[in-house]
Each structure stands twice: as structure tokens, then as C-alpha cells.
């Protein structure tokens, strides 16, 4: 259990001074250091990286990554154990997105021992707690007044990245037979098209608030309890 008390003078503002340099794989006493990279291995500058004290409640020390994605945090003279944390905030198509980054080692460590903790910015895949980084995609039948209802066993959807994904990388098209929501779609904006596998007729789609058309561009929307969501309505036009 954390103890709530005022930090001793050794955790004064002087300890907040940090420097950034290339990290090594061997821990340096009184130093937490490492790198932040995308899943493709590209360095990510300007990412806040912190050490959260496991003994003194509310005690955190922070720095940011340099142009090469390196960070270095001075823990000299501190007490208790520390947990490495990193978060990234980006504005993507007008929306602020805040994500926790994945550490290569989530174990707590003593300040005197130091630690190397590297982080990866993932847009898909399993999170350490068993969730998913990626978005859920839904194709939802429109109302009968809008056209003929689509048989989901006869539906194929294609998601083509519309520009770079959230981390700036180039995504790949996704084409699948749609029988249930797609899980773990890499975070990004997509152009969505759909077709009838049996050739029943064209399938039109629309994003929320849009009009039915042969294609629609959809962006990420956060839904509490679900996470990031991409969705379109589908219909056979009359």
C-alpha cells in the first residue's frame, strides 16, 4: 500500500533536472533510461516518460524523449521503488488521442539499482492487461426506409487507410468477409467500401452523419467500455 506523506528534501525540484542521451542495455545506478519507438522501430521524440514512486503516494518524476527517442531520468538519492510509465498525446484528424505506451519490462525497481525501460507505441495487438490496442470496426444495417437490408453472410468489407495511421506509418488495406465486428484494426482513418459476395447488388455505406454512397471515410471515435471504434451503416440501395 502507498503511504501518503510529504516527500523528503531529497525529492526536491533539483531531482527533476534530466538529460537525454543514448541509453544502454545495462542499468546505471540512480538512473532510469531507455528509448521510445513505434512498432516499426522508428524513434518517437517529445514523449513524456515518468517514474511513479510505489511508496510515496503522488510522487512522480518526468522527462521527455529527445529527437532520437532516448530519455534519461535522474533518481539520485530517492527512496522506495519506482514504476516506469509513458504516455503519448497526439491530435489526429482534429481529435486529441491519449495513449499508454507498452514497456518492455513492467517490473518495479529501486532507485539505487537504476533501470533500462524501453517503450513501444503500438496501434494494434494485445495490451499487457489482455485488451487490444486496435479499434473495433462495425458494419451496421441501415433502416429499411433507406434500402434493402444486407445479409451479413453475403457482405465483404474493405478498409483502405486514408493517409498515415495514428503514428505516421503507412497502413495496409484490410479486406474480409464480414460476419461479426472486426477487432484490433490498426488505429487510423479509413476509406470503407463493401460488396455483396453473391452479386446481389451494390452495397452502399455511410459514416455517422453522412449520406449513403459507394464509399465513406471513417475516423476513430472513442466509446466508453469499448475503446476506439470505426463504424459504417450499410444498405442495398433501391
From TrEMBL:
Keywords of this entry: Carboxypeptidase, Hydrolase, Plasmid, Protease, Signal
GO molecular function list: carbohydrate binding; carboxypeptidase activity
Coiled-coil segments: none
Xref: InterPro entries: Carb-bd-like_fold
Signal peptide positions (record): 1-24
Protein name, per record: Carboxypeptidase-like regulatory domain-containing protein
